[in-house]
């Protein structure tokens, strides 16, 4: 089978998991499940980013040593995988894993050997929230627009730098950005092209003085420095697949697959699509295949983030509504590329309208009528239909299913999960209208044959919906398929009203 490799970013373990990262996990898992169904061998990677000054200070505030602190939070992020129904085969990497730290050090050595790392004194404005240095042009009223409640810090020391401005890297990135599908959506790629046309790329610091901030991967051959968190963390995309200790495994997932598909938020365009690609080039490795950038989940018009304290607890949401309900909402009501607003009231409204009164009610109605009106196998009803009847199936003909499947696949191949799942809710709407139009519960009294044909069409529609629902709501899809196969009625609502 042809390999397919995709990864989420690694969230900082400086606070509880929130709905923003839950969306990225579910987004990636939907694509992973779809690719497996399409016959690909899939490697899905996620994990936790556990170094850097932000985490070091959080551990100090909690009165803990950094390692026990990150161990505690990493366990919570691992629990999020099962809570959200993420594929059991998902890989979970921690940047404190020995194998990862060794890979990060080897990566550093290769970049330095190739002439892309040097040392110099410097002074910068630094945002701890972003773990990035900031230029005046990036600031609003002297503050980072993403973390306006956190004052910038001045850093003045001698560190190692990465030559992002090197003309070999500039030429490489310019050629990379000629690929129209390298960054999705395309307007994010335009941001990178504008960056290249503007002031260009500047070298960036890739280490910190260990005396000031000891929590990080040690810089090779410099015991006084630790790696800057981004230099360390991004290497997880290759250390997770065996680099450099298992090159056969690395080549399968990085080279044969065409490269990794990276999911990330819109605040990481530069890090993922410029810094990381330049670092790969400097180490003599091929670039990523694709960068998929999603928007922010907001609350009341503000970015939902741990630092602002306005996050939604995904564990509480799953406990109240169930795993598949949360996956559904994130897929259908959160835009894959633009910012979206999330409130508990909106979630509850969508749950009742789309799941309790929508999918759940349709399954119950159709299967109840099927048990009540069908005494023979469904295939017998199909055989009894004449060719003209089969050709004129109103609700969901084979030709309609073919066309809908084609659009569904196009959307998922383009990471348009919202458009893909909307196709299924269009089928639910059509089935409800079909029932309202023909009223089979009344028609059965005057035309048994026609009623059975209508019920057959409705079951056929449910089979199509449940089949295509698998990447989005795997347990629900399995439950519906089993009910259809066993010719049973749900013994309880799939989605009880809230």
What's the short story on this structure?
The chain is an alpha/beta fold and 498 residues long. It is built from 20 helices and 16 strands. The strands form 4 sheets. The protein has a 6-stranded parallel β-sheet with strand order 3-2-1-12-13-7, with helices on both faces.
CATH architecture designation of the largest domain:
3-Layer(aba) Sandwich
Low-confidence stretches are none
- What share of residues is helical? 40-55%
Number of domains: 2
Give the class from helix and strand content and strand pairing.
Answer: alpha/beta
Q: What is the rounded distance between the termini?
A: 44 Å
Structure annotation, total helices: 20
Write out the CATH superfamily name of the largest domain: HUPs
CATH topology of the largest domain: Rossmann fold
Round the Cα radius of gyration to an integer and report it.
Answer: 26 Å
CATH class of the largest domain: Alpha Beta
Strand content: 5-15%
Arrangement of strands in the largest sheet: 3-2-1-12-13-7
Determine the mean pLDDT: 91
Number of strands: 16
Shape label: elongated
Major beta sheet summary: 6 strands, parallel
Question: What does it look like?
Answer:
It contains 20 helices and 16 strands. It has a six-stranded parallel β-sheet with strand order 3-2-1-12-13-7, sandwiched between helices. A four-stranded antiparallel β-sheet has the order 5-4-6-8, with helices on one face. The protein has 498 residues and is of the alpha/beta class. The two termini are 44 Å apart. The protein has helices spanning 19-37, 53-61, 66-83, 98-113, 167-176, 186-197, 229-233, 236-239, 247-256, 269-282, 314-321, 323-332, 344-373, 378-384, 387-391, 398-413, 417-438, 440-443, 448-469, 474-486, and strands spanning 3-7, 41-48, 91-94, 117-127, 132-134, 153-162, 183-184, 204-205, 207-209, 218-219, 222-227, 260-265, 290-294, 297-299, 302-303, 340-341. A hairpin with a 2-residue loop joins β14 and β15 (302-303). The mean pLDDT is 91. It has two domains: 3-317, HUPs (Rossmann fold); 343-486, Isoleucyl-tRNA Synthetase, Domain 1, CATH 1.10.730.
């Amino acid at each position: 089978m042809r390999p397919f490799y995709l990864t989420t970013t690694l969230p900082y373990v400086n606070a509880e998991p929130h709905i923003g990262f839950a969306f990225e996990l579910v987004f990636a898992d939907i694509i992973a499940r779809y690719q497996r169904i399409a016959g690909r061998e899939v490697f899905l990677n996620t994990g936790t980013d556990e170094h850097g000054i932000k985490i070091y200070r959080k551990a100090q505030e909690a009165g803990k040593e950094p390692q026990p602190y990150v161990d505690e939070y990493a366990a919570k992020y691992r629990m999020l995988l099962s809570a959200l129904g993420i594929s059991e085969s998902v890989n979970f990497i921690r940047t404190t894993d020995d194998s990862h730290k060794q890979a990060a050090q080897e990566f550093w050595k290769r970049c330095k050997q190739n002439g892309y790392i040097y040392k110099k004194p410097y002074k910068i404005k630094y945002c701890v929230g972003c773990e990035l240095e900031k230029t005046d042009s990036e600031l609003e009223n002297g503050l980072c627009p993403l973390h306006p409640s956190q004052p910038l810090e001045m850093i003045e020391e001698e560190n190692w730098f990465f030559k992002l401005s090197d003309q070999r890297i500039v030429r490489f990135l310019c050629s990379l950005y000629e690929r129209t599908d390298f960054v999705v959506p395309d307007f994010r790629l335009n941001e990178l092209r504008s960056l290249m046309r503007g002031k260009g790329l500047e070298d960036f610091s890739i280490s910190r003085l260990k005396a000031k901030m000891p929590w990080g991967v040690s810089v090779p051959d410099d015991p006084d420095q630790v790696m800057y968190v981004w230099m360390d963390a991004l290497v997880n995309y290759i250390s997770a697949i065996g680099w450099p200790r298992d090159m056969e495994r690395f080549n399968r997932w990085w080279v044969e697959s065409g490269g990794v598909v990276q999911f990330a938020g819109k605040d990481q365009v530069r890090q993922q699509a410029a810094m990381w690609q330049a670092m790969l080039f400097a180490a003599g490795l091929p670039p990523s295949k694709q960068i998929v950038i999603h928007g922010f989940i907001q609350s009341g018009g503000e970015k939902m983030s741990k630092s602002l304290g306005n996050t939604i607890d995904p564990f509480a949401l799953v406990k109240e509504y169930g795993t598949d309900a949360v996956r559904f909402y994130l897929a259908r009501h959160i835009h894959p590329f633009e910012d979206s607003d999330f409130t508990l009231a909106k979630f509850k409204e969508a749950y009742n309208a789309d799941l309790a009164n929508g999918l759940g009610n349709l399954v119950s109605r159709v299967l109840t009528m099927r048990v009540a009106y069908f005494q023979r196998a469904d295939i017998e009803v199909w055989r009894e239909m004449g060719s003209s009847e089969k050709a004129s199936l109103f609700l969901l003909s084979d030709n309609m299913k073919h066309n809908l499947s084609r659009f569904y696949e196009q959307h998922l191949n383009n990471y348009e999960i919202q458009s893909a799942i909307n196709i299924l809710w269009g089928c639910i709407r059509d089935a409800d209208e079909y029932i309202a139009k023909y009223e089979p519960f009344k028609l059965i009294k005057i035309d048994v044959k026609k009623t059975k044909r209508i019920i057959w069409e409705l079951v056929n529609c449910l089979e199509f919906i449940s089949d295509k629902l698998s990447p989005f709501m795997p347990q629900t899809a399995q439950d519906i398929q089993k009910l259809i196969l066993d010719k049973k009625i749900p013994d309880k609502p799939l989605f009880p009203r809230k």
